[in-house]
Design brief:
Blueprint (H helix, E strand, L loop, with lengths): L10 H11 L6 H9 L5 H14 L13 H18 L21 H5 L17 H10 L1 H14 L23 H5 L6 H24 L9 H15 L2 H7 L19
Helix pairs in contact: 1-3, 1-6, 3-6, 4-9, 7-10, 7-11, 9-10
């Protein structure tokens, strides 16, 4: 899991993720692999969101770009996958329903990363300038803005075991992230069902957010804008948003937040 701290991506990570964002999750076999691995590893889950938000400059919806559309499509699917697994009744066929929290197979990005020692030219997606994209992604300007705008909503929903401000062993277990739930396996049936219900509630808000980023979707409010952070926090831990929300950056010229950007 990522600690509460900055995220510095390598050029190879950005190269792989920028290619991944351009359609990989729409492939049925890839989606099945991602369900089996429960998405990407924690580092590349947050990196996936960062690369899309920082680098995708144009799009539909109130913001018109710099938004996590691809991320919400994938994690809507994974939220339902995990919720359905947690809701299964223990039986001969499903002795341990909470095994749905465990990845089967490696992170796709980790597996595809080229070793720095390998010779040869590594082309970016559509001949993009990977070095320049890496600098832009590592600026984290738009990701920081998303986290800062929505912190009043998601701060009280952080996994208590990820939160350095929560005493050890305290906090609501229904808010635990995937990793800290896994550490408590086997999970009691009431807790499994409660977590599944929470994940579906997050998914419902995130579906509205996804629709708002299309040509015909209605604008959304802060609850929906916070949903993707809650979803990614569940799958990858809360280190990055806790760091970004505690390290506000001054807005660059022309980056002022408008009511339209908030979806109001």
């Amino acid at each position: 899991m990522l600690p509460v701290g900055p995220l510095e991506l390598s050029a190879e990570e950005v190269r792989q993720l920028w290619s991944f964002i351009h359609g990989d999750i729409m492939d049925g076999s890839m989606r099945r692999l991602l369900r089996a691995s429960v998405g990407l590893c924690p580092r590349h889950t947050w990196a996936y969101a960062v690369v899309e938000i920082e680098l995708w400059q144009a799009g539909a919806g109130a913001r018109g770009g710099h938004q996590p559309f691809d991320v919400t499509v994938l994690y809507e699917d994974l939220l339902e996958h995990v919720a359905a697994g947690l809701d299964l009744k223990t039986s001969l066929l499903h002795r341990h329903p909470d095994e749905v929290l465990l990845p089967v197979g490696p992170c796709r990005i980790c597996a595809d990363m080229a070793s720095p020692s390998l010779p040869g030219l590594r082309m970016g997606y559509a001949n993009s300038n990977t070095k320049a994209l890496t600098v832009e992604a590592n600026g984290l300007a738009h990701t920081t803005a998303w986290c800062g705008e929505t912190i009043p909503l998601w701060r009280g929903r952080v996994c208590p075991d990820c939160d350095p401000d929560t005493p050890k062993g305290a906090g609501d277990p229904e808010l635990l992230c995937r990793f800290h739930l896994t550490a408590r396996r086997p999970l009691p049936e009431p807790l499994r069902h409660a977590v599944a219900s929470r994940l579906r509630e997050v998914r419902g808000r995130m579906r509205h957010l996804t629709e708002s980023m299309t040509d015909y979707g209605a604008p959304v409010g802060h609850e929906e804008n916070a949903s993707w952070i809650e979803a990614v926090g569940f799958f990858a831990g809360w280190g990055l948003p806790l760091y970004l929300a505690g390290s506000p950056r001054e807005a660059e010229p022309g980056q002022e937040t408008t009511e339209a950007e908030h979806g109001e």
